[in-house]
Amino acid sequence: MSRPLGYLSLALALCCSAGIAAVQRFGVGGAVEGIAVSFVLVRSLSILAVVFAAYGCYRLVLTAFDRHTPDKRRRHDAKNVFRLAFGIAGVVAALGVVTEQWLGLLFSLGVVGFAVTFALQQPLFSLIGWLYIMTKRPYQVGDRVAIESSKGDVVEVSFLVTTLWEINGELVSSNQPSGRIITLPNSVVLSSHVKNYTREEFPYIWNELTIQVAYETELDYATATMQREADEFLGDEMAARIQRYRERLAETPVELEVRDRPTVNVVQEESWVELRLRYLVHPKRGQRVRNELYERILGAFNDEPERIKFPIGRNR
After folding, report:
1. How crowded is the C-beta side of 228, counted as CA atoms within 13 Å?
2. What gap in Å lies between CA 144 and CA 158, rounded to an integer?
3. Which parts of the chain register pLDDT below 70?
């Protein structure tokens, strides 16, 4: 649909140009409020020609980009960039056609822009924030992020605001969608911490699953069981992801030992022992993986009631 609409807009621009040529050649008599009708027609048709030409070029360029770019995120970003570029070009061209004073127009736009900078500081900062997002990529559409006290999945990045589908919030927990929409000004990326959980280079995070057992538990058996169940469920997948992480890590000066299989840490509490299973997971699959691991591990523990003891009748 975009391509036919683009061609239609260009055709209308040509029709307007033909109308301008016809008016200038044959002339149109009469005047309105002292202004010649031919002058008004030429200016009006010129503005329409510029608007139709800018919109048609925008549609055709956007369609060509979309056809050669399968990535939805890049198509979303390109749409905003093309819209801004062709919009500015169209407005400047339309004003230039009307005034026929290109040098004076550019000077006037500079003065107006200087005044707008003071009058509209916050929207300007948001526009600068949008340019920062487009160039530095702290996040993009589809990423799961936390900005200030808001957390969610990015669904849109416009010129002035970023829109999130909220995760957690006051309504739900366990990294589940709340159903609410959060709108943040783009200027927040210039002054706040941005946590990106699904960055394109490495869209995974480490997660922990904690199970409490009694002091009478055979800890060696319990930790081995947890590692075995986790390794059977996601061990090979995790190892492949860790290899990717090590490749990224090798590009930096950071030296860090990273285990490529699930591990268990033992933490002593007052009346029980916490076994914390550490593993790698995609943030958007975190709760599903956690539920599956709980079922597998608790099932294995319940099969050995003599070796695995749970805290009973104690403060937990």
Report:
1. 11
2. 17
3. 1-2, 23-40, 72-73, 95-121, 313-316
Angle (CA) 197-200-201 rounded to 5° is 100
Q: What does the alpha-carbon distance between residue 57 and residue 68 come to, in Å, rounded to a whole number?
A: 17
Q: Please report, as a single letter, which amino acid is at residue 14.
A: L
Q: pLDDT tens digits, residue range 178-220?
A: 888 999 999 899 888 899 988 877 888 889 999 999 988 999 9
Q: Which two tokens stand for residue 240?
A: 């492949």
**The tokens of 55 are what?**
């919109």
Half-sphere exposure of 157 (CA within 13 A, CB side): 34
Give the contacts of 74 (CB within 8 A, at least 6 positions apart).
none
Integer Cα distance of 91 and 113 in angstroms: 14
In this structure, the number of other CB atoms found within 10 A of the CB of residue 189 comes to 22
> Minimal CA–CA distance to 213: which of 278, 272, 284?
272
Instruction: Please state, in angstroms and rounded to a whole number, the distance separating the CA atoms of residues 296 and 313.
Output: 25
User: Six-digit token pair at 179?
Assistant: 């159903």
- DSSP letter for 269, please: -
Task: Give the model confidence (pLDDT) of 100-128 as tens digits.
Answer: 655 554 555 555 555 555 556 677 888 88
Yes or no: say if 209 and 267 are a contact pair by the CB < 8 Å rule: no
Q: What is the mean pLDDT of the chain?
A: 80
Q: Which amino acid would we find at residue 308?
A: I
Start-end of H helices in the chain: 2-26, 37-68, 72-99, 102-119, 121-136, 219-250, 286-302
Interior angle at CA 236, CA 233 and CA 242, nearest 5: 120
Tokens 């997948």 belong to which residue?
237
Give φ, ψ of 177 to 5 degrees: -65, 140
DSSP β-bridge partners for residue 23? none
- Distance in angstroms (rounded) separating the CA atoms of residues 247 and 256: 12
Give the global pTM: 0.64
